[in-house]
Amino acid sequence: MTPPRPLEVRRLGRVPYREAWALQQALVAERLAGTIPDTLLLLEHDPVITLGRAGSRDSLLHDEAALAREGVELVHSDRGGDATWHGPGQVVGYAILDLRPDWKDVRRFVSALEQTMIDACADFGVAVGRVPGAPGVFVDGQRKIGAIGARFTRWISHHGFALNVCPNLSGFRLIIPCGLRDKGVTSLEAELGRPVAVEPVMDRLAAHLATRFEREVAW
C-alpha cells in the first residue's frame, strides 16, 4: 500500500491579501518544480474585498473610494467566484496541492473542500451543508458560512476556502456575497452564541482536509 503524501501545514497569522497571493504564486512554482510537498496555508487577512474571475462590480454596494474610507482594500483576484469579504476572525485556507494523477477533477476538488468545512463545523456542533448551484457551505441552506474560490495551474491547485469563525459580519454588508442576493451570512460564533477561537478551527480544518485528500499532516 502506498503511504499517504505529506501535507505541510503553515499557520501564518494575519497576512495582507496581496502578500499571501504573492506567496501562493511562489509556492505553486515550487510545487510544480517538485521542491516542496503539498502545502496548506492557514491564515487570516486584513479587511479586503476580492472579486474573482466571475466577479462583477455589480456585486459591490459601495465604490472603491467609499471602501477605502472604511479601511477595506479592493483586489481583483485570479481565483474563481464572485465577490467576497475577508478579514480577521475568518480562517482562510490556501491549498497548494498537486492533483496529479488521481485528483484531476475540479468538481471533486471543490466537493472535498466543501466536505472539509462541513466536517470541521460538525466538530463544533454546527450542522452545515451544500446548496445546489452555489459553491460553499450553508446553515439551513440560507446562511453562508464558508466560501470557495479556486484556481489550477497545470493541476496544481491554489486559493481555496474561507470559513467564518468569529469575524465582524458587517464587512459582508459592503457587497452582495458571492453574488447571492437571497442568502445571508453567518459564522460559527453567531450560530453557537459563544466565542470561538480560530486556532482550534484551523487544527480541525487541516485534519479534515488531509483526510479528504488522503494526505498526512506535517505542521
Walk me through what this model shows.
43% of the residues are buried. The protein has helices at residues 17-33, 64-69, 106-123, 188-192, 198-212, and strands at residues 5-15, 38-45, 48-51, 73-76, 83-86, 90-96, 129-131, 134-139, 143-153, 156-164, 184-185, 215-218. It contains 5 helices and 12 strands. It has one domain (5-214): Bira Bifunctional Protein, Domain 2 (BirA Bifunctional Protein, domain 2). The two termini are 24 Å apart. With 219 residues, the protein is an alpha/beta fold. Strand 7 (129-131) and strand 8 (134-139) form a beta hairpin. Strands 1, 2, 6, 7, 8, 9, 10, 11 and 12 form a 9-stranded mixed sheet that branches. Strands 4-3-5 form a 3-stranded mixed sheet. Helices cover 28% and strands 33% of the residues.
CATH fold call: BirA Bifunctional Protein, domain 2
Total strands: the figure is 12
SS field, number of helical segments:
5
Estimated structural class: alpha/beta
Assembly state (oligomeric): single chain
Q: Report the order of strands and helices.
A: EHEEHEEEHEEEEEHHE
Map the helices and strands:
Elements: E1 5-15, H1 17-33, E2 38-45, E3 48-51, H2 64-69, E4 73-76, E5 83-86, E6 90-96, H3 106-123, E7 129-131, E8 134-139, E9 143-153, E10 156-164, E11 184-185, H4 188-192, H5 198-212, E12 215-218
Helix pairs in contact: 3-5
Short characterization:
With 219 residues, the protein is an alpha/beta fold. The chain has five helices and twelve strands. It has a single domain, classed as BirA Bifunctional Protein, domain 2 (2-Layer Sandwich).
